[in-house]
Write a structure and sequence with these properties.
single chain; alpha+beta; SH3 type barrels; 24% strand; rod-shaped
């Protein structure tokens, strides 16, 4: 279309919009400029609402007619006796035509657009209008989009640098792998939050209004993401509180193994049979945690049963000498030997000693100690009775029954078995 010949109002030049589209079924038909009290966009919006209201009705639409108003030097475009718009002298000057010619031209364009086209043409026209509007909006917002992309790229680079710097600082000061990971990830996320706010501002979005809109849906979001947010919050607390660290051997609920990874959402454990278990941090946070390697030493306990006729002091001395000469046991705290129980057939001695807290070392050392104590007591001649069964035999004559031979005696044998507790070696471990 010809360029506008007259100056637009100051408000129009400020926004950069001099003409706006008049749409029929989403397809631009022609453009209108501003008038005295309305900008081009406001004027086009009013015309579009009037056209859409008529198109939405079920009544049959006639043709758009032009009604000149010579005293006022305007012309009105009417449809079904309703005013769609007013063509002004300013419009005629903007497009270099006479008032009557411009009014006829716009009336014919509206008539062609209002007549319902075939489906294929209608779809094509709508797609063309949407694509055209999208391209126009893209060109209009291109500087903002480019600015936002630049902000995102800068944020990405700064976030990686800050994460590396924070992780390096944490390695020098904390000495705990899980805390180092927490500091690095929080710093990385913090930079991205700040960069996102700046990018939204470059795009022209009001961050305060965005927060207000999010506040309206915060309850629904909170219910839908309750478990996810709970896992992340629990992960932050676990990484800050540090009840365990990577490579610690722990018991969490029904699982026991070595901590392989601590993330914000879940904790990864490798069980002693080689399986990986991913435990949500919410469950970890609410469960009772036993950390077997929080201390480098762990106490083990076994039970040794000796005969009642054996010398308890001599047996204790043999066990103590065996423990003192055993390589791999902790010297401090020193081993302890107690008379734990007077069982029916044995005197039970509890032997306590300290070993390395790692599971392999703990089980291996406990097994070796049990074997060494058993062999030492056998060499010293200390009896360690096994299960004892007492057999009682009773002879009784059977009374002759009806039809039986009274001269014939039969004897029954009753076996009474009493099982007494033994003092057989029973290893027991206490953390």
């Amino acid at each position: 279309m010809p360029a506008a010949q007259s100056a637009t109002p100051e408000s129009e030049s400020d926004t950069g919009v001099y003409f706006a589209d008049v749409l029929v079924r989403g397809r631009p038909i022609f453009q209108v400029g501003s008038v005295e009290d309305l900008t081009a966009r406001e004027r086009a919006s009013i015309i579009n609402r009037r056209i859409n209201s008529l198109l939405a009705q079920s009544e049959t639409l006639g043709r758009v007619v032009v009604k000149p108003d010579n005293p006022r030097q305007v012309a009105t475009l009417r449809l079904n006796n309703r005013v769609l718009m007013t063509v002004t002298q300013q419009d005629a000057e903007d497009f270099g035509l006479s008032l009557e010619a411009l009014a006829e031209r716009w009336g014919n364009q509206l008539n062609q657009a209002i007549e319902k086209p075939p489906l294929a043409i209608d779809v094509g026209q709508r797609l063309y209008g949407e694509v055209r509007q999208l391209l126009r909006d893209t060109v209009t917002n291109l500087p903002s989009l480019l600015g936002a992309l630049v902000v995102v790229a800068i944020t990405w680079g700064v976030a990686k640098g800050v994460r590396f710097a924070a992780f390096t600082w944490a390695q020098r000061t904390e000495g705990d792998r899980s805390t180092e990971i927490l500091i690095g990830r929080l710093s990385y996320g913090g930079v991205w939050v700040l960069g996102s706010v700046i990018a939204l501002g470059v795009l022209g979005l009001d961050f305060a209004a965005l927060l207000g809109a999010l506040g309206l849906t915060s309850v629904a979001i909170g219910f839908s993401l309750k478990d996810v947010l709970s896992n992340y919050i629990s992960g932050v607390i676990l990484l800050a509180a540090r009840p365990f660290a990577i490579n610690d051997q722990v018991v969490i609920g029904d699982y026991e193994g070595t901590i392989a990874q601590i993330d914000l959402r879940a904790t990864t454990m490798r069980t002693y049979d080689g399986r990986l278990v991913y435990i949500p941090n919410q469950e970890v946070f609410s469960a009772s945690i036993i950390n077997n390697t929080a201390s480098p030493r762990r106490r083990s306990s076994i039970m040794v049963g000796i005969d009642y006729d054996a010398d308890i002091s001599s047996a204790k001395q043999v066990i103590k000498s065996t423990l003192e000469s055993f390589n791999g046991l902790e010297k401090e705290p020193s081993p302890e030997i107690f008379v734990q129980e007077l069982a029916p057939s044995t005197v039970n001695l509890e032997v306590r000693f300290w070993v390395d807290s790692r599971r392999l070392g703990f089980l291996t050392m406990t097994s070796d100690v049990v074997q060494a104590i058993k062999e030492a007591l056998q060499e010293a001649g200390v009896e360690m009775p096994t299960d004892i069964y007492t057999l009682m035999f009773r002879n009784s004559a059977l009374q002759p029954s009806v039809g039986a031979n009274p001269d014939r005696d039969r004897t029954t044998l009753e076996l009474v078995v009493s099982n007494h507790d033994s003092g057989k070696d029973k290893p027991d471990s206490h953390s």
